[in-house]
């Protein structure tokens, strides 16, 4: 197959070129009539003379026969031919065309690079790679970004979820969805674009059935395993390329149901890397089994074994007679406490809980079942209970590159008050949750949960029932907050015990390993 | 080689050369053990013997330095054994590298002194705690650099080690005053900087040193005076204490006390832990480090 003669980099470049051409095509169509004269003119003349010169030298393997084709082939034709058009031209001709266009564009780009704005999707490899884009989910108040997202979702045939209710102005740049309007209501059943296990997963996320960083990542990986099992490579396509493209709409869909967590992001990155590293000679069955074992190994290594390693280190820090404070329900911290109890350490636990999620009740249930003596308080009683506490164990949703800990809202409050009382704060986190993001406050990037959760019914009366009618009232239901590293004494990871400021070192060591 | 003979060897080392750091003496002893060991058949067996020897040495001298030196040697052995699976060849390589390592670390004190003495300005008043050979070397090189400074040394009970330090400084013609341990807060406003040694540097960047160091650090923080620590890199140890209580018992008391006394709660601890938030800079042979960089170095060393 001719596709295999081109190396991986060249194929990637061709794909980027295809995307870029598509964008240029859209931009061209959007511009007004006055502009119409300019852009086609600017696009056409440079390519034609250059193409005939460059094309012979640019083509590596395919035969010389396709050379006259680019010159005569209409540049107005859609640069991304749909599968129906593909048989019309031979693959080699199309590739030659793309190659030629890429060369000319690169030539045209040199002087014009300053004109491309920060937000355009220009292939970064050809420009100075310092330009970074803000993620779309923190730019909800910018209509241009929202429009772009809507278009992207339309292309992927995924419904767009609309925001609900009045948003507090400080957080108006974030999405706020209602749980009563799940995304799946707008989908047709059966959905042709999205795999049913992904639909199920999205529903589980948006309704809060699957919650917690580890649980979400594991559910995601299992759903992807099902997707891979049911996948068949279409003809004329390569598994390594096509499967990644198939996963993109699923990821957008899950993102719409509930914004992806850092751990899920890292898992997806890993899967995409594994898929694209499948050699093209690999048979489909072999490739699929390989991917399934990779995913199993990832779950085993990064989550299950990491939890065991972290328990081993953490148990050293639990001494007899300790009073340990935990917040909310972290699967890792519960695991550690159960293991320590099994190793006959004598300690008691204080579970701190907060509305509206009341996750502490789940943690309380799990610990009491094992026989650990527990106390339960709400977060407002924190400074009352802290003089009794000897250590605080916290879970983390993600560890950011500047040492900040992103965790359930309320965690930074606990760390702050514990620091004031000189109680050591220990954060337990697996290394797969470390991410390259940097954040110094909880406003920049967060998640807004359903504001209706804050309504509570007592004695038959629901006070905030008509909160939408009061124009100046906004309900804020934050999900995450960031804790600065000065409040954290120790981070226990599967690599060992490190101070909070050493997170970038671990990230660097991890990147070296890969 | 008999374990008793090893401990004797270790003690002779320390007696013959009082300047040698105890970690270096420990490593030298272990190297000697390696050279003389005939019984080991496998690398695992060798490791077992070494671990036993280290434990025996720790019983003889319970300082953190011996523990860290031993652990460093063990890690160094494990790395070498990975490269050369054959035992006899492995041993030869280990002995060679061990000698090289010893030579390098005997120079570490002078490296530290060279880095630190530039921080002592002319006319400076320095406060130090108890008797540290590294601090002595630093002050020596500063004096050799024709700098004029005065030193205040805390008496450091219960063994009055501070007085020995004062004698040594007087021999170098440096003006020195001995102050009571309780007078640290009183004297703090007069001094410009505080320099202390360390028995061990822990993963968080804090230090383990003679009892009284923590007080000194808290006082200097309250007065905004820089608190400098001078330590060689072989003192980096894989501990992570959260507070004073979290320091393992085997380091807190002298070896004889650990063996003789039943109820340790009645005994006086010999060391305390100073958290990294109170330390300004650490001077090591790896360079001038901030407390958070210590963890970087440890990760590089051990992972």
From TrEMBL, chain A:
Compositionally biased intervals (Basic and acidic residues): 1-12, 27-39, 86-108
One Gene Ontology MF term: guanyl-nucleotide exchange factor activity
Keyword vocabulary terms for this entry: Cytoplasm, Initiation factor, Protein biosynthesis
Basic residues compositional bias, start-end: 13-26
Assembly: Component of the translation initiation factor 2B (eIF2B) complex which is a heterodecamer of two sets of five different subunits: alpha, beta, gamma, delta and epsilon. Subunits alpha, beta and delta comprise a regulatory subcomplex and subunits epsilon and gamma comprise a catalytic subcomplex. Within the complex, the hexameric regulatory complex resides at the center, with the two heterodimeric catalytic subcomplexes bound on opposite sides.
Database matches in PANTHER family: TRANSLATION INITIATION FACTOR EIF-2B, TRANSLATION INITIATION FACTOR EIF-2B SUBUNIT DELTA
Role of this protein: Acts as a component of the translation initiation factor 2B (eIF2B) complex, which catalyzes the exchange of GDP for GTP on eukaryotic initiation factor 2 (eIF2) gamma subunit. Its guanine nucleotide exchange factor activity is repressed when bound to eIF2 complex phosphorylated on the alpha subunit, thereby limiting the amount of methionyl-initiator methionine tRNA available to the ribosome and consequently global translation is repressed.
Low complexity bias (residue ranges): 72-85
GO biological process, any: central nervous system development
Protein name, per record: Translation initiation factor eIF2B subunit delta
Any Pfam family: IF-2B
Family of this protein: Belongs to the eIF-2B alpha/beta/delta subunits family.
TrEMBL record, chain B:
InterPro entries reported for this sequence: eIF2B_alpha/beta/delta (IPR051501), elF-2B_alpha_N (IPR042528), IF-2B-related (IPR000649), IF_2B-like_C (IPR042529), NagB/RpiA_transferase-like (IPR037171)
UniProt superkingdom: Eukaryota
Record has Cytoplasm as a keyword: yes
Localisation: Cytoplasm, Cytosol
Keyword match Ribosomal protein: no
GO cellular component: cytosol; eukaryotic translation initiation factor 2B complex
Keywords: Cytoplasm, Initiation factor, Protein biosynthesis
Pfam families: IF-2B
Entry's Gene Ontology molecular function annotations: guanyl-nucleotide exchange factor activity; translation initiation factor activity
Subunit structure, as described in the record: Component of the translation initiation factor 2B (eIF2B) complex which is a heterodecamer of two sets of five different subunits: alpha, beta, gamma, delta and epsilon. Subunits alpha, beta and delta comprise a regulatory subcomplex and subunits epsilon and gamma comprise a catalytic subcomplex. Within the complex, the hexameric regulatory complex resides at the center, with the two heterodimeric catalytic subcomplexes bound on opposite sides.
Function of the protein: Acts as a component of the translation initiation factor 2B (eIF2B) complex, which catalyzes the exchange of GDP for GTP on eukaryotic initiation factor 2 (eIF2) gamma subunit. Its guanine nucleotide exchange factor activity is repressed when bound to eIF2 complex phosphorylated on the alpha subunit, thereby limiting the amount of methionyl-initiator methionine tRNA available to the ribosome and consequently global translation is repressed.
UniProt family annotation: Belongs to the eIF-2B alpha/beta/delta subunits family.
Protein name per its UniProtKB record: Translation initiation factor eIF2B subunit alpha
Native species: Oncorhynchus tshawytscha
Gene this chain is encoded by: EIF2B1
